[in-house]
Automatic annotation (TrEMBL):
Keywords: Hydrolase, Magnesium, Metal-binding
The name this protein goes by in its record: 4-nitrophenylphosphatase
Catalyzed reactions per annotation: 4-nitrophenyl phosphate + H2O = 4-nitrophenol + phosphate + H(+)
Key word Hydrolase present: yes
Positions annotated to bind substrate: K262
Needed cofactors: Mg(2+)
Source species: Puccinia graminis f. sp. tritici
Amino acid sequence: MKSWAEDGRQLSRPHFDETLLHCNPGAGGTVTKYSIRMSMVKSLESHKDLQGFIDRFDNFLFDCDGVIWHGEELIKGVRTVLELLRKSNKKLIFVTNNATKSREAFKAKFDRLGIQADLDEIFGSAYATALYLKRILKFPDDKKVYVIGEKGLEDELASENLKFCGGTDPADNEFIDLMDFSSIQTDKDVGAVMCGFDMHINYKKLAKAHRYLHENPDCHFILTNDDSTFPTDGSLFPGSGAISAPLRYAMLGKKDPIVVGKPNQPMLDCILEKHKLEPSRSCMIGDRLDTDIAFGINGGLSTLLVLTGVVTRADISQPQAKILPEYVIDSLGDFAVLSP
């Protein structure tokens, strides 16, 4: 199921406009404008409903924060549910837009929380972006990636044997004197700019990235994700999308970035490339409508919304709700009642 050519051109994929986001391609049936509302969202409550849901799918894709855990606290019943799915020979994939951590770092967290997760099952947006560049775009071995991001992004580029510069390099983390552009020098071997979350973002990094994109029409422009904010410590903080916003604005009308993370499809393309999943037998489970559920819908997967994150039943009952899941459940941990 490809949607991108090797040169990065977007190919045809079933299009879901805002009226069709009320349905899920996995649900089947005829779609009429605004006809599918909350009455079509199946609430999983009875033992029969829960077992029928599990039996319907071979593959489950999970968001992590708000679905599996809250910070460093595992959501009640989740460990039992994941063990149940493995015993039922289901394939599990963990999909997160967090681009600051490598798969090894995520695995360390799974280990701390007592959850089995193999490296191949973990798809952070940092890894997916590296995989997309290497496997889908066929990025040349003799070219480098200029990185705006943290060490986790560098680690994942290295895991795919991709050369890079910038990132955590101390030279790029220095502030420059006012109107002194002499230190903004470029590397002729750079063929892509990759932007993720960077807590040390500065003008020098943005200016250098802009030079690569402005001076080389063939330079790829790739974002790990474009999340405007992320929740932590009881508040909201600027996310990766806010980090890349100045660069996107500077390139407005000249070059649009490829965004890999949810709800965009390059991440799913990477997962399908690696695991050869059948979309009709796969379900995306998440706590956010605009990323997780939209990601599943756009990719032809079924969708399950859990209410342990940022969305409530009231949110999906609103007439103005444009994105609705196929299924809803209070918590992923509710499936634990199926465990013998």
